């Protein structure tokens, strides 16, 4: 197989020697005296050399990340602020931020064309989860990286294969217990939705933390929507169940609004945004109820704001 490795800014800062070793591994594989049918790293490296006339060391670059001093792909910020129209904007943001290749010297150099080329052959994307406290819907880092990467892969495939290109499989390696287990992204999000968001033991515990607890509940929904935006692999029932549990239930909606009116209104607006972006398609009755509940939460929020001292 051939591989492409992307780095977080934190790992870049903490693990400089490991980055050089990964880059050296890719270079050694490209230089190996082996048949191309048995060494896909070498096969793709030599193909890039022939097509673009670059040296072997450049074509063998497989480790990508931010420029020095920069962090993140900004995909999370675009989703959080709803400042995007088409999914391609998310993939473009990832490539723009993460298109710096790290070679055996450990210094980043922008190579977006090379990155696009290696991404176009990617069949699946993968990331480990190693904390029982943080899942892929707990924080925005996961969809910012793996989600953004997966979207960039699909766009690179579209560029080379046209409309026939298919999205890569997206997998999560859950290393939190025993030997670990690999799940599809859809399976992982479904598991986390059932065991956390829809689990009364979890969300009731969150509500005990008041303002911050409601904010945490809302962030799970935003992160789930980030996965829909970047991969399109989240089942519609997730949004339906979250809507029924937290917004369409009058008692729960009232409890959340009292604790954190801003996050409660944001929760309703996220569900409506997910509907507008066709991540789920609620029936007419559900959509109308959600719109009414969202409007009530917005009115309540404005009332709270009006009541604050100048």
What does it look like?
By secondary structure, the chain is α/β, with parallel strands linked by helices. It has helices at residues 9-14, 16-31, 40-52, 56-59, 75-81, 88-98, 112-119, 141-161, 185-197, 200-207, 211-231, 236-246, 250-259, 261-276, 284-307, and strands at 5-6, 63-65, 100-102, 108-110, 124-129, 169-174, 181-184. The strands form two sheets. A four-stranded mixed β-sheet has the order 1-2-3-4, covered by helices on one side. The longest helix has 24 residues, at 284-307. The radius of gyration is 22 Å and the shape is elongated. The model is unreliable at 305-310 (pLDDT under 50).
Produce the secondary structure layout.
Blueprint: E1 5-6, H1 9-14, H2 16-31, H3 40-52, H4 56-59, E2 63-65, H5 75-81, H6 88-98, E3 100-102, E4 108-110, H7 112-119, E5 124-129, H8 141-161, E6 169-174, E7 181-184, H9 185-197, H10 200-207, H11 211-231, H12 236-246, H13 250-259, H14 261-276, H15 284-307
Parallel strand pairs: 1-2, 5-6
Antiparallel strand pairs: 2-3, 3-4, 6-7
Helix pairs in contact: 2-3, 5-11, 6-8, 8-11, 10-11, 11-14, 13-14, 14-15
- Give me the Rg, rounded: 22 Å
Measured distance between first and last alpha carbons: 63 Å
Q: Note the overall shape.
A: elongated
* Coarse structural class: alpha/beta
Widest sheet: strand ordering: 1-2-3-4
What portion of residues is helical? 55-70%
> Hey, roughly how much beta strand do the residues contain?
5-15%
What string, H for helix and E for strand, traces the elements in order?
EHHHHEHHEEHEHEEHHHHHHH
Enumerate how many helices there are, as a single number. Answer: 15
Mean pLDDT: 94
Low-confidence spans: 305-310
Strand element count:
7
**Biggest β-sheet, characterized?**
4 strands, mixed
